[in-house]
Specification:
This protein is mostly beta strands and 317 residues long. Helix content is 5%, strand content 54%. It is built from 1 helix and 27 strands. The termini are far apart.
Length: 317
Amino acid sequence: MKRVLLIFIFLWAFTLMAAPMEMNETEPNNTIGDAQIQTISNANVIVLGASNGEQDIWLLDPTTFPEDVVVKKINGHASVKVYVSDFSDYSGATVHQTVSSSFAQIDLDPTKFYYVNVSSGSPSGYRIQIATPAALPVELIYFKSNSIERGVHLEWATATEKNVDIFLVEWSRDGQYWTTKNTLPAKGESIEKIKYEYLDEEPKKGMNYYRLKIMDLDKSYEYSDVVSVAYDQKETVDVQVGPNPFSDFIDLNFNNYNKNYSVVMIDMNGISSWCDVREQADGRISLNTSELPAGIYFLKICSKDLNKTIIVNKINY
């Protein structure tokens, strides 16, 4: 009897060992905190986004991605970092590059694993784009600004363009609220370097911010980096002359008189005549023209900031 009982217990134990065990835990799903690592295998162009995620992580499949990739912020407020690890489960991952601006090209080592980590708490969410450089609609080489006497000069260049429609030059006083200054047509299709420029003749005194809104033919768009420039607005120098016709005197009214002007009368034969100059108040000077014969003259006014010639008529009463 004992032998039968021992055999029965042995068979029951063997059955339990042979049967598959039911696990209460699920298979590992590569989660980091509340974020599940998702794999991207499309190396062409992919747009990623979320309504309001605290953290999202994408693994760039090393078997399909080339040796470089572009990560772009399209809209939304998000912190975008690219991590690198020796393992496919994110362990030991360290920051490889931070996408601090709207655009970053990442060089990939095919022996490593790369993760795009996006943290966002914005209610509006975010959108980013991952693509190979050849798949981008435009490759911007540079975008820069320079303050000149006539305003702010902007220039940019593209290395390639694909289905690009227009460039909208946007301006901001504080870097947050933007208005469109001008629209320039793009070349559209090109694999050669193309240069563009625009002169903003009405910048504000102080700091000015500019960016490009690059719009494709399908009305999708992306933004360039923001450039800033300080503009020291100078008052335009000008002069008003009168009376004209004149007789014994003629007045010159300057809006910015600095006493460094030269004034000469030139008759129709090219002969110059110098007049007695009397300084008046409020930027006005008076020329004594009583000794000039009647006729038509060219009144030439020159300074560092002004070079102006006015036709005047001397008459005798």
